[in-house]
From TrEMBL:
<dbReference type="InterPro" id="IPR043742">
    <property type="entry name" value="DUF5687"/>
</dbReference>
<feature type="transmembrane region" description="Helical">
    <location>
        <begin position="103"/>
        <end position="125"/>
    </location>
</feature>
<protein>
    <submittedName>
        <fullName>Uncharacterized protein</fullName>
    </submittedName>
</protein>
<dbReference type="Pfam" id="PF18940">
    <property type="entry name" value="DUF5687"/>
</dbReference>
<keyword id="KW-1133">Transmembrane helix</keyword>
<feature type="transmembrane region" description="Helical">
    <location>
        <begin position="170"/>
        <end position="190"/>
    </location>
</feature>
<feature type="transmembrane region" description="Helical">
    <location>
        <begin position="137"/>
        <end position="158"/>
    </location>
</feature>
<feature type="transmembrane region" description="Helical">
    <location>
        <begin position="353"/>
        <end position="374"/>
    </location>
</feature>
<feature type="transmembrane region" description="Helical">
    <location>
        <begin position="452"/>
        <end position="471"/>
    </location>
</feature>
<keyword id="KW-0472">Membrane</keyword>
<feature type="transmembrane region" description="Helical">
    <location>
        <begin position="311"/>
        <end position="332"/>
    </location>
</feature>
<feature type="transmembrane region" description="Helical">
    <location>
        <begin position="61"/>
        <end position="82"/>
    </location>
</feature>
<keyword id="KW-0812">Transmembrane</keyword>
<feature type="transmembrane region" description="Helical">
    <location>
        <begin position="422"/>
        <end position="440"/>
    </location>
</feature>
<feature type="transmembrane region" description="Helical">
    <location>
        <begin position="23"/>
        <end position="46"/>
    </location>
</feature>
<feature type="transmembrane region" description="Helical">
    <location>
        <begin position="282"/>
        <end position="299"/>
    </location>
</feature>
<feature type="transmembrane region" description="Helical">
    <location>
        <begin position="202"/>
        <end position="226"/>
    </location>
</feature>
Amino acid sequence: MISTFVQHELKAFWRSKNTGKNMAIRIVMAILILYLLLNVLVIAFFMDKIIDKAMPDEDMIPAFCSILLYYYLFDLLMRLQLQELPTLRVQPYLTLPVKRNTLVGYLSFTAILSVFNLWPLILFTPFALKIIAHENGAGVAAVFILAVAALTVFNNYLALYIKRKSNLNGWIFLAAAAALILISTADFSWHLYSIRKASGFLFGHLLAQPAFVVLPILLGAVMYYLNFLYLKGNLYLEELGSRKASAYKSSTEIPLLGYFGHIGDLVANEIKLILRNKRPRSSLVMSLLFMFYGLIFYTNPAYQNSPAIKLLPAILMTGIFIINYGQFMFSWQGGHFDGILVSKVTIRDFFKAKYLLFSLVSTLVFILTIPYVYYGWHILFIHFIMYLWNMGVNATIVLFFANRNYRRIDLSKGASFNWEGVGATQLLLALPLMLGPYLIYWPLSFFKHPDVALIILGLTGLLFILTRSFWIKQLEKDFITKRYTIAEGFRAK
């Protein structure tokens, strides 16, 4: 039966009207993946020398064992962002004499065929054959490779399980991403525990007692079985639909947004769109990840006496959602844009809802980055200035450029290596967003007035916020002149 499924998928691919385009994309992706795997292979063969230079005072094998858990945490984070869910059009088979276990088994099996599952084997197998086999014997090296494969299977099915659950409730994805961030922060920043020591202990015991390989094998098997049960239980569309309906509240039941009336309803619908679809959801996840961007700058002594450098992390941390999500303002609704044009929702309300969404997310991110005051009150001051700038100036610039984006985005597609909707407009947008604050800051900073420059930046952002109704009118007029061009662009698939 598996061969039948494969034949059907091949026929569906070749008979598709976009076969040529899909083939070109697959060829480019195959070349890129092959290049990445070759780089991983080079790193694998020089792993022992890299570890020796990075940790010269430690024994080779214990030092290697101590970094493995870090890899699997990073691997899980990348899978949540980039790994695609294996799919099969199961509806036609449900009315045929095909066992449900066969369908689910095929979906579960194809999940193994991911390039992510090759990376750890290519990366760690040469080290096991060169070093572990030489020190502990070929049998122990084989057990180690088996454990690596089992943990890879565990990560594979754990990521798929989280992403499938997230399709019903988007908060699960955010909770999983937040959990990974907290686990890393508790180790690197708060020093509550040491993942490195735990990794060295676990894999060190595995090399000393190869029978412990049963544990990672058991973890991989349990995760596979959980995915199998989940897929089997949600194979019927009516069951999946009923659960999805119960997982989301209506917009009027969101207390905070209820105070904004009709505009709040539009924002609530936008939040549902973000949480239910992979690509817009990645914009929100990126905003959370960028909260840690300041650790790169504020912990580096070279940047301590350079306020100009500190503007960049402040802009990105408090405004990355506005930049990354807002530039595709109409593209997210490209599939039903014609309906928006003829609906009772006015474009002015649409712009107001976007401004409100930007304000809510930026305010939340600003509050979450307040702990950076640990590195000085001046940093918190810069964050607040850039928070005002992003909500006032950058939000308006982003919406202005969004009126010039005529490329639709298919929300059903994943976020990884997806350049749909990206054009020259998005590339040009980075210039005013990143350089705008510096055009005010650098001249005054040159005359030894950096704080005055920051105050002017903050007042400019505040002025744009206070005159937001004026800018909304201008954006509405601009949209009216371009609405048919935007609609025509969205209709072209």
